[in-house]
Amino acid sequence: MITEVFTADQLKKESPVFGQLSFNDHEQIVFCQDKDTGLKAIIGVHNTILGPALGGTRMYNYSTEWDALNDVLRLSRGMTYKAAITGLNLGGGKAVIIGDPKVDKTPELMRRFGKFVDTLGGKYYTAEDVGMETSDMDTVREVTPYVTGISESKGGAGNPSPVTAYGVYMGMKASAKFTYGSDELSGKKILVEGIGHVGEELVRLITEEGAKVVISDINEERLNQVHKKYGAEIYRGADVYTEQADIYAPCALGATVNNDTINKLRVKIIAGAANNQLADENIHGAALQEKGIVYAPDFLINAGGIINVFAEIEGYGRDQIITKTENIYNTTLDILHKAKATGLTTNESALSIAEERITNRKKEILG
Ligand code: NAD
Q1: Listed residue (196, 132, 127, 204) closest to 166, CA to CA
Q2: Which neighbouring-strand residues pair with 295?
Q3: Which tens digits make up the pLDDT trace of 117-171?
Q4: Residue 31: phi, psi to the nearest 5?
């Protein structure tokens, strides 16, 4: 998936770290290894101008270490902009653990990883991402305070996924308002790709509103479960990207808007939870604009989770979490209108607002 975007051949051999295409002024990259537990992890701290870097830990069976490095670099950068556009005093960071969570994840490995997080002394706060559960964050909490998204019974804000799904739902409704003049999703055909923690909750919200929901996943068991629970239709065609729909919601992994899929897509709106949906944000943001597909920037509309876990650090409650998440609706609408008025892509428009906030804060710090 990621290899097709940044192949090893593209990477500059003479400068394999700073020369990476996805290296974007990152402050610090930490490579963590522990032979006893089999831990191989990379922590990416992209930017801490607005506050400590916060971002989840992803455990994934990467094909190559380059893929893992590229993923953590892209994801941590995205977190900087996500926090900035959401108005949170947080920087951007992310971690990846190389391995299959079903096979390689043990409490010992998670504790060892937590100890590496602890060595950063609060510069980076972790949370859950793909391949992680709230209980894993509880294990990490045993060895470091720099973790969010721990169980509610242990004083945490719990699983962030339902709040993420709610924010995506807000962004989707705003995109519908912009495109159709009404934010009603009732009767709209919505294709949800990836029905994991976030995708399933999104399916629940849009089904309740009366949308015609089509689901796709590589996990047959989940497809059947979600179909039974909400009556969503299972996609059985040969290529999900050719399916005609009003809205495509990528909720699996990133880079699904790429050179291959872009010409196939037959949707009016893209609004989903996955991070880094545009394989190359410069090329594919513009390509979507040309095709007249409204793209709700991922880092803007999937910020519910970070709002939820930030509450643990700041100590604010449920009402504020919901209010901040609902505000994703207004921000999305503003950005879509701004992009239309300026000719920027929606992604560029969102990035420019986030960057402005970081630049202003940097000026304040430097005096
Ligand atoms: P998850 O692991 O619970 O779910 C991912 C789902 O996608 C699984 O059901 C998996 O089988 C499916 N999947 C994987 N590859 C697929 C493919 N090629 N085609 C179709 N389905 C595929 O993860 P999640 O927590 O629901 O997160 C989903 C996405 O949203 C991720 O990209 C994540 O980074 C992003 N995100 C999550 C949160 C959060 O709060 N959990 C917050 C922000 C962003």
Answers
A1: 204
A2: 270
A3: 999 999 999 999 989 999 999 999 999 999 998 998 988 888 889 999 999 999 9
A4: -100, 125
SS3 at position 136 = helix
Question: Which DSSP letter does residue 154 get?
Answer: G
State which of 2, 59, 100, 129 you would mutate to test the pocket of ligand 1, scoring each by most atoms of that ligand within 8 A of its C-beta: 129
Residue (of 106, 95, 97) closest to 33 by Cα position: 97
* Cβ-Cβ contacts under 8 Å for 208 (sequence gap 6 or more): none
The answer to whether 163 and 184 are in contact (CB under 8 A) is no
Q: How many angstroms separate the CA atoms of 135 and 150, rounded?
A: 7
Look at the block and give the residue holding tokens 């906030």.
357
pLDDT tens sequence across 225-242: 999 999 999 999 999 999
Among this protein's residues, is 94 annotated catalytic? yes
- Residue nearest to ligand 1 atom 31, measured at CA: 274
- pTM of the full predicted structure? 0.90
Q: Which atom of ligand 1 is nearest to the CA of 306?
A: 42
115: its two tokens? 């100890």
Q: Are strands 39-47 and 91-98 parallel, antiparallel or unpaired?
A: antiparallel
* Torsion, CA 164, CA 334, CA 94, CA 127, rounded to 10: -30
pLDDT band at 5 (very low <50, low <70, confident <90, very high): low
Q: Return the biggest CA–CA distance within the chain.
A: 59
Residue 18 Cα to ligand 1 middle (Å): 29
For the chain, the average pLDDT equals: 93
Q: Judge contact between 324 and 157, C-beta under 8 A.
A: no
Instruction: Output the CA 140–ligand 1 centroid distance in Å.
Output: 21
Please name the amino acid found at residue 357. Answer: R
